């Protein structure tokens, strides 16, 4: 199994973290984004959108971090805990995968793109989206350990990376004790591996 990405990508970290949590042997192949490797062949044959991460598992090639989480959970987690099969539980997980692809991507992830990678994004708008998202999450995590149920699911894995590193994008986590506790719960999972921190934004205050 091979995972193509870069260490500072939260999308790639989602996939890498879940591979570690499932204890699945794999090779991490770093893609040279600065040289435009992701916009050239053979990478484009794996993902025509030219985006990381990409997972190769035998004759299966998958792009998109959330799709990779779904695939790994469905194929390698026989317990069904990471991706529940019961309809309501499955829908709750899907809700947070949609949040990861929407509000997290346009909020804390986009804010971090500006400060870490100097990306041409509207930093203030991204921070506003992140703050609203965190306000909602703080309430939803009241009295709960996990986003979508009584145990960890891929909803938590999809949400963790960019939220944990939100201070790097200039978005403080100090006002959100429930979110910080949830992040600690994810870090306590057996096999957890973190994403490298940067010195951008409010990184020194990151939890």
From TrEMBL:
**Does the keyword Flavoprotein belong to this entry?**
no
What superkingdom heads the lineage? Bacteria
Which PROSITE patterns does this UniProt record tie to the protein? Answer: GST_CTER (PS50405), GST_NTER (PS50404)
Concerning InterPro entries, the annotation shows:
Glutathione-S-Trfase_C-like (IPR010987), Glutathione-S-Trfase_C_sf (IPR036282), Glutathione_S-Trfase (IPR040079), Glutathione_S-Trfase_N (IPR004045), GST_C (IPR004046), Thioredoxin-like_sf (IPR036249)
- Which UniProt keywords are given for this protein, alphabetically ordered? Transferase
Pfam families per record: GST_C (PF00043), GST_N (PF02798)
Q: What are the recorded GO MF terms, alphabetically?
A: transferase activity
What are the GST C-terminal domain coordinates in residue numbering?
A: 86-207
Q: In this protein, which residues make up the domain named GST N-terminal?
A: 1-80
Which family does the UniProt entry place this protein in?
A: Belongs to the GST superfamily.
Put simply, this protein is called Glutathione S-transferase
Q: Which organism is it from?
A: Duganella lactea
């Amino acid at each position: 199994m091979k995972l193509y990405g870069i260490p500072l990508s939260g999308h790639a970290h989602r996939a890498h973290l879940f591979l570690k949590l499932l204890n699945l042997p794999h090779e991490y192949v770093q893609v040279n984004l600065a040289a435009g490797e992701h916009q050239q062949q053979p990478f484009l044959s794996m993902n025509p959108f030219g985006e990381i991460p990409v997972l190769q598992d035998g004759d299966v090639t998958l792009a998109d971090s959330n799709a990779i989480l779904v695939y790994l959970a469905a194929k390698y987690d026989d317990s069904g805990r990471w991706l529940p099969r019961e309809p309501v539980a499955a829908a709750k997980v899907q809700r947070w995968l949609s949040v990861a692809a929407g509000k997290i991507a346009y909020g804390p992830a986009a804010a971090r793109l500006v400060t870490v990678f100097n990306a041409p994004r509207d930093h203030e708008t991204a921070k506003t989206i992140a703050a609203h998202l965190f306000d909602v999450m703080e309430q939803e995590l009241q009295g709960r350990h996990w986003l979508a149920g009584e145990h960890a699911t891929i909803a938590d894995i999809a949400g963790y990376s960019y939220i944990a590193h939100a201070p790097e994008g200039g978005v403080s986590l100090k006002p959100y004790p429930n979110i910080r506790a949830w992040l600690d719960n994810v870090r306590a999972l057996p096999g957890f591996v973190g994403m490298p921190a940067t010195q951008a934004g409010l990184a020194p205050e990151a939890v």
